[in-house]
Amino acid sequence: MIDTIAKMRAEFIAGTYTPTQAVEDAFVVIEEKDGEIHAFLDTYKDDALAQAAEATQRYAAEGEHAPELLGVPIALKNNILLKGKRATGGSKILENYTATYDATIVTKLKEAGAIIVGAANMDEFAMGGSTENSAFGATKNPVDTTRVPGGSSGGSAAAVAMGAVPVAIGTDTGGSIRQPASYCGIVGFKPTYGAVSRYGLMAMGSSLDQAGPLTNTVADAQVVHEVMAGDDPMDGTTIKEDTYPEVSVKETYTIGVPRDFMKEGVDPDVMEAFETHIEELKAAGHAVVDVELPLFEKGLAAYYVVMPAEVSSNLGRYDGIRYGHSAEGETLLDVYKNSRGEGFGDEVKRRILLGTYVLSAGYYDAFYGKAEAARVLMREELNGVFANVDVVLTPSAPTPTFTFGDQSDPVSMYKQDIFTVPVNLTGVPAMSIPGGTVRRDEHNQPCGEQQQGVELPVGVQYIAPHGGESRLFDLGKKMYDSKL
């Protein structure tokens, strides 16, 4: 399988490779590897091959004038609706639900010629950081199958990392694209809130969710994002084109590093890789300065109030009557309780309970109101920092990928999101690119000089001002793609 859209398209145009070959190659990898990796919940081989044959004919007729993603195999996270296909959200409660329409981003991907080869596994309703919470079994990390791929878009990340597809689509509510990208050694991009339509995405946190690409290069992420982005009359939160902020692209950038934010909880080897990346930025001519973001330290607490509150509201529709699995009961209340009790997993139940609590009459002002107020102040703080720097830099996650069951305590799992959740709370764009590797033994401990082990990828996260996608792509291509 050719690993980038750019290379694949060039060969399609030249006639040295065809969409039919690309799809066949994708399914060779899936059939060889996915029995162990479990990146996919469903695959669509017959449909994909039929679309590939048509795309092959179109390249013969249209050449370089063909749509930008024509014939490119893509995996789609299973909380994004694809008409006529199962959309489970990784949950038993939707195990047999078939989508009746395409999400807006699916429509745009199809119009650009993409071929969707399968539905990627995910944490149930996107709640988790390891894909261990999928009702249909965990996904393994192709880098080391004893470890998690991250989450909630772990299936999407694994599909790219194992070489089945050059791009997969995920969703990011608090880091669910960037964290698995870091764990799997690929690129993960989360757009500005409102840059991409949420119509046809299963809502988790409506003020936080955005769809974005996981790819092998920054250039590919840019191509896919630009296909999916744009105003949508079906989603009132999308930003209209004539009001989208203009953020400049420069030859060199001033990079802000919030060092106080990284004082505790970051693996020493991750920090070493991070410092190496800073030296690479300086060597490339970029300026690196320290910045202060004290309210970002409150981001995790605010997020785990705001997000469960929105989860509690959004998942109310799955009650055994309107949508999803329905269990029998003597009364209507019994139907609700039995359906949700059987259909939802433990993490979903935990977040619904927490969200219902913080929205209750006695606690709304004490918790939810204060979290939303903190969110406003975080935006103001970040805007102040962006008055002096072009990009903010952090690790993508505080640790490399971990072994299955290693983060069984929910709070320790939530802490993996410490660098990513402030981005969703403030609505700005961010991207994780590979930032080196660290060595670990089979017990998840650092290796000594004489010990054998595995090299695990770690990511660095670039954060840009509202509407600053072009700046992230430019810097990312300079600092990552240029090395490939």
Structure in words:
The protein is of the alpha/beta class and 484 residues long. The protein has a domain at 5-243: Amidase signature (AS) domain (Amidase signature (AS) enzymes, Alpha-Beta Complex), CATH 3.90.1300.10. 38% of the residues lie in helices and 13% in strands. It has 15 helices and 11 strands. It has helices at residues 5-14, 19-37, 45-62, 104-111, 154-161, 178-184, 218-228, 268-283, 299-314, 332-343, 346-359, 364-386, 410-414, 421-426, 469-479, and strands at 40-43, 73-77, 115-120, 167-172, 187-190, 210-215, 254-257, 287-290, 391-395, 430-440, 454-463. It has an 11-stranded mixed sheet with strand order 1-3-2-4-6-5-10-11-9-7-8, with helices on both faces. Helix 9 (299-314) packs across helix 11 (346-359). The chain starts with a helix and ends in a 5-residue tail after the last helix. The mean pLDDT is 96.
- Which regions are unreliable across 5 or more consecutive residues at pLDDT < 50? none
- Report strand order across the widest sheet: 1-3-2-4-6-5-10-11-9-7-8
How many strand units? 11
CATH architecture of the domain at 5-243: Alpha-Beta Complex
